[in-house]
């Protein structure tokens, strides 16, 4: 029988939202937090089903994905250690129209929905910070929709790479071109061509299952304005989450 992978030790304070809470609020929540492993491909919650908890990632990336009837999908936003997965719970909604799936391996802390509801009634620091994060997340969703409609695959790939690197704090992203194509809602061939152009320009290197970001400053010159719009809004609403 296969043994489960041991949990990587991580402090709740590695989630920047939890770290930004007033000390009294954080101390009240600590006994309620349960550490969980985030494994690529794991579905945290499914579209249309009840959400009984939220997760505060301390590392890794979780993609929020919308599905359509023919089985196709596209990422509408991503969350790392700057925020929380399951904002519908903070808004008092039982379920969501999208799926939350782990994209990059990491660790998180689970908090039951009942505890979240208690904090919302108290008007605690968690309520205030979570609502600001929700506004930033809505901005990311809206800008992703605009980007997918008006910008090239090359620009969209640059946006995705930069947003992902911001959350992982590493130059090496472990993901296949097929998965990126699914997240961007385009054909794999389109991602292959876009990645080839970036590699030929010396901005990235890639092999099967791994992309290395070699020249971020020049990558930022190739991206559309959508990356800056999203980053500015996160910096404005969530100054604790600034990375650059």
TrEMBL record:
The keyword DNA-binding applies. It comes from Novimethylophilus kurashikiensis. This is Crp/Fnr family transcriptional regulator. Signal peptide: none annotated. Residues 151-217 form the HTH crp-type domain. It holds the Pfam family HTH_Crp_2. One of its GO terms (cellular component) is cytosol. PROSITE patterns: CNMP_BINDING_3, HTH_CRP_2.
